[in-house]
Structure to design on (154 residues):
């Protein structure tokens, strides 16, 4: 092998190493470190028997019985459907015990909760559920009925 051929092989090896390094950096890695396993959690919200969009459904973890340590929110679509997202779209929630709160915001410059805070306290929530550890099974919370005539919490 001549001097030119060895030089060309050396350059080709360097190009290959650069390409491998570039492609290795292009794979999609999870952001934010290790992820907790999740289970898809979804449901439907109706107000006075009717589906409504733009209801904020907030999921509050029990600090002593949940891997997640902060609330996760979802917003209903026009049919009242919602699904929680922890890392990726509709991937659900990690293992734990959760309670739900609800706000139905007016679309205005100074939005107000049309439910007048009646469903906004996680400690008084009547909607709670458990996600089993590492199951990955879908959890359907069914239809959750809210009522505009419920009195506001004191």
């Amino acid at each position: 092998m001549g001097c030119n051929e060895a030089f060309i092989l050396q350059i080709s090896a360097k190009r290959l190493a650069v390409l491998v390094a570039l492609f290795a950096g292009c794979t999609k890695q999870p952001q934010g470190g290790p992820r907790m396993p999740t289970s898809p959690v979804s449901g439907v919200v109706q107000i006075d028997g009717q589906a409504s969009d733009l209801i904020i459904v907030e999921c509050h973890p029990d600090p002593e019985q949940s891997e997640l340590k902060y609330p996760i929110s979802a917003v209903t679509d026009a049919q009242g459907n919602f699904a929680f997202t922890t890392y990726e779209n509709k991937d659900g929630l990690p293992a734990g015990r959760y309670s739900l709160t609800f706000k139905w915001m007016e679309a205005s410059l100074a939005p107000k909760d049309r439910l007048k805070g009646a469903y906004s306290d996680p400690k008084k929530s009547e909607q709670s559920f458990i996600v089993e550890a590492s199951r990955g099974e879908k959890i359907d919370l069914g239809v959750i009925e809210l009522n505009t005539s419920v009195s506001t919490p004191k």
Observations:
- Confidence is low (pLDDT under 50) at residues 18-27.
- The chain has one helix and eight strands.
